[in-house]
Amino acid sequence: MNAPQKASTDFEAKYWGTLYSILSWEQLTALWQKLDAGAGWYLYAVGQDVPSAKSSSDEVAIFIKHIDELLRKEHEEDYCGIVYADDLARPTFIKIYDPHNLGVSCGSSGHHIFPGWIMSQQAPVDLNPAVVPNNRKRWWQSLFGG
User: Fold this and answer.
1) What does the alpha-carbon distance between residue 19 and residue 15 come to, in Å, rounded to a whole number?
2) Distance between CA 15 and CA 28 in Å, rounded?
3) Phi then psi for 85, rounded to 5 degrees?
4) pLDDT beyond 70 at 102
5) Which region, left, alpha or beta, applies to residue 103 given φ > 0 means left and ψ of -120 to 50 means alpha?
6) What's the Rg (C-alpha) of the chain?
7) 122 to 39, 71, 98: CA distances (angstroms)
8) What is the pLDDT of residue 77?
């Protein structure tokens, strides 16, 4: 990954800050169980419009159900490794990478790979990714019409 950018918002500080990898599918299940759906989450599909309001607890629950299904179906590995959280016991910021847009995992290509989705209790800012796959735009729109 490129060198961290200077953070000018709480969201950017979390984005560029230390995050912990969810290595196993069991850890991902545990993370979802620890997550408070009513804690005031912004659900940001990177490349779509930045949400201006927090999602309802029902929307968060729907998102978790569907993103978990997508990751387990499309990440054809026996481990997770594509979800990162700021705190494994009480997460407030979660990056979720698209299984079909991982690039070079070590970042040696010199290009920043954007996550597909971010769950954040801090108001997000537009990350301006260069390309968002159309299939992911359609997936997001099927969930929330956005």
Assistant:
1) 8
2) 19
3) -130, 155
4) no
5) left
6) 14
7) 11, 24, 21
8) 78
Type of residue numbered 28: L
The residues spanned by each domain of the chain are: 18-144
For 42-84, the pLDDT digits (tens) are: 999 998 889 999 999 999 999 999 999 999 998 877 888 899 9
Q: Which residue bears the tokens 């629950």?
A: 61
Task: For residues 76 and 63, give the distance between their C-alpha atoms in angstroms, rounded to a whole number.
Answer: 20
Name the pTM for this structure: 0.83
Stated length of the chain: 146
Task: Determine the average pLDDT of the residues in 19-45.
Answer: 95
> Distances in Å between the alpha carbon of 22 and those of 26, 76, 134?
9, 16, 26
